[in-house]
Amino acid sequence: MIPVNPQTRTTLLLDFAWQPVATITARAAFLHLIRGHVSCLDKEHQTFDSMNHWLEYASLYEDQPALRSAKTLWPIPTVVVVTSKFYHKPKKTKMSINDLVRYYKNTCQYCLEKFPFAELTIDHIIPKSKGGTDEHSNRTLCCLKCNQKKSNKIPFFNIKNQPVKAPEVPKFIFEHDEIRKEWEIHI
Ligand SMILES: [Zn+2]
After folding, report:
1. Per residue in 145-169, pLDDT tens?
2. Which residues have CB under 8 Å from 81's CB, separation 6+?
3. Would you say residue 187 lies in a domain?
4. pLDDT digits (tens, 9 = 90+) for 44-69
5. Are 70 and 98 part of one and the same domain?
6. Is the pTM above the cut of 0.70?
């Protein structure tokens, strides 16, 4: 076990359908487990519905995150599944430039060519000067050249002469790059 800061995002939260929702902190995972809000998965993919069972029977990873109290280490599950009503579906959010670059694999949505991160920018599909908003539905990924060429023209189509749309917001956006091995089958 590895003692971690309670604010470290150690745990993947799955919804009722076992779809990934978010990563949560060790502290949040611990509290949800104590309160019976989640069941947790161990190394062998067994599920545990209570803290007692988890502490007694779970098989742990070598690098299982743990919270330290005065007397003991509490192993924190790295995957938990929602079992109660505490869970509210998160609202759709905007994708950041990082999210868009990852989502489109560095591809400008106008010329459809790939560019390094530094040469890409967020494009407002309907330019702000023409009443476009900064909402997710009006944002896409664009290279600097196309951005310049487009300026405030509308409509401005891509190289295949098709209109450009904002991407579907993925249900789950990773806020950090570190992915635990056991998360991979869920995401
Ligand atoms: Zn381009």
Report:
1. 999 999 888 889 999 999 999 988 7
2. 14, 15, 16, 18, 38, 39, 40, 41, 47
3. no
4. 999 999 999 999 999 999 999 999 99
5. no
6. no
CA of 2 to the centre of ligand 1 (A): 46
Q: Residue 113 C-alpha to ligand 1 middle, in angstroms?
A: 6
Question: Domain of 113: which CATH number?
Answer: 1.10.30
Q: If you measure from the C-alpha of residue 122 to the centroid of ligand 1, how many angstroms do you get, rounded to a whole number?
A: 11
Kindly list the distances between the CA atom of residue 24 and the CA atoms of 2, 6, 79, 136, 186, in Å, as whole numbers in the listed order: 17, 10, 10, 24, 15
In terms of domains, do 49 and 14 share one? yes
- What is the 150 CA–ligand 1 centroid distance (Å)? 10
Query: What is the Å distance from ligand 1's center to 176 Cα?
Result: 27
The answer to whether residues 106 and 70 belong to one domain is: no
Which amino acid, 4?
A: V
Cα(142) to centroid(ligand 1), Å: 5
Work out how many domains the chain is built from and give that number.
2
